[in-house]
């Protein structure tokens, strides 16, 4: 029997890369070299390279000195960088409950981002979005995908998915904008009984004020998101850059470039405009549930 329980404490480097990229842009805009930047914080050029590539956690004093050296006078921008550095340090220490998530690819990394996010836009072409799945639906996927052979790992995966859904509740719930292709709702994952319960769950969650659910109908034909599913993760800070996560056969791919993220955002918006309005979407889901 094969167990895929992950015991590594490797935490998200996505936040570190975002922070490093911001510092790199500031240095280039200021016309400073890596050696000059290193001298400003009494470090070596190698340390600046590691910082700008997101390889190491960053100290607040270093960030403050570099921001001053680069001529960054916007106090809010400096505070945002400091908060990002703090969050990255916490993720690297793997304090989150997701550190031992039995999942393929970069799922622990994604969950860390999801916990820090304020808003997620999710496009799904063949599955119900993870944050909206019932335990039975998730369990069926765990068995059919074949990644987990140990039943305990499957149940742990179900528990993780359900725990992630707590972000949709509480004082500061995650805002979720999900667009789902009609095929995902008709696909008989687990059979009629499981799908009927899953569709009922969608109807319940769609009533939450911070959950926006739309269905892309078959009749829409070709659409901008036809290449595959992805999530656009956004953060509360006004100047924070989005991060895009897309699924691959072997795991996950990350897009952190501002221009590329904008392309995903544009494709999501165009596909949403082709989709049914929320009220019509829930009507379609209710009709499919009756058919089950």
Describe, in plain words, how this protein is organized in 3D:
- 50% of the residues lie in helices and 11% in strands.
- By secondary structure, it is α/β, with parallel strands linked by helices.
- The protein contains 12 helices and 6 strands.
- The chain folds into 2 domains: 14-92, Orthogonal Bundle (434 Repressor (Amino-terminal Domain)); 102-291, Endonuclease, Chain A.
- Strands 3-2-1-4-5-6 form a 6-stranded mixed beta sheet, sandwiched between helices.
- The chain has helices at 14-30, 34-40, 45-52, 60-69, 75-92, 107-116, 135-145, 151-164, 182-186, 192-205, 258-274, 278-291, and strands at residues 119-124, 175-181, 211-216, 230-234, 243-247, 252-255.
Tell me briefly what this model is.
By secondary structure, this protein is of the alpha/beta class. Helices cover 50% and strands 11% of the residues. The protein folds into two domains: 14-92, lambda repressor-like DNA-binding domains (434 Repressor (Amino-terminal Domain)); 102-291, 2-Layer Sandwich (Endonuclease, Chain A).
């Amino acid at each position: 029997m094969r167990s895929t329980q992950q015991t590594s404490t490797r935490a998200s480097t996505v936040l570190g890369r975002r922070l490093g990229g911001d510092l790199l842009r500031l240095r280039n805009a200021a016309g400073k070299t890596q050696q000059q930047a290193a001298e400003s914080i009494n470090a070596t050029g190698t340390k600046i390279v590691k910082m700008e590539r997101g390889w190491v956690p960053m100290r607040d004093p270093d960030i403050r000195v570099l921001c001053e050296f680069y001529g960054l006078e916007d106090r809010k921008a400096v505070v945002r960088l400091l908060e990002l550095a703090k969050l990255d340090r916490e993720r690297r220490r793997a304090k989150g409950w997701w550190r031992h998530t039995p999942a393929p690819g970069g799922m622990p990394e994604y969950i860390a981002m999801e916990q820090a996010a304020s808003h997620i836009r999710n496009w799904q072409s063949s599955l119900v979005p993870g944050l909206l799945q019932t335990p039975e639906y998730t369990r069926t996927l765990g068995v059919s995908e074949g990644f987990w052979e140990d039943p305990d790992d499957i149940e742990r995966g179900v528990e993780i998915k359900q725990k992630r859904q707590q972000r949709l509740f509480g004082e500061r719930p995650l805002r979720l904008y999900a667009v789902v292709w009609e095929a995902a709702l008709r696909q008989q994952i687990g059979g009629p009984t499981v799908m009927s319960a899953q569709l009922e769950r969608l109807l319940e969650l769609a009533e939450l004020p911070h959950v926006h659910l739309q269905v892309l109908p078959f009749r829409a034909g070709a659409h901008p998101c036809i290449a595959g599913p992805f999530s656009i993760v956004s953060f509360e800070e006004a100047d924070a850059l989005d991060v895009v996560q897309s699924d691959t056969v072997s795991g996950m791919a990350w897009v952190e470039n501002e221009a590329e993220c904008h392309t995903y955002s544009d494709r999501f918006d165009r596909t949403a405009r082709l989709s049914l309005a929320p009220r019509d979407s829930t009507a379609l889901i209710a009709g499919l549930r009756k058919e089950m």
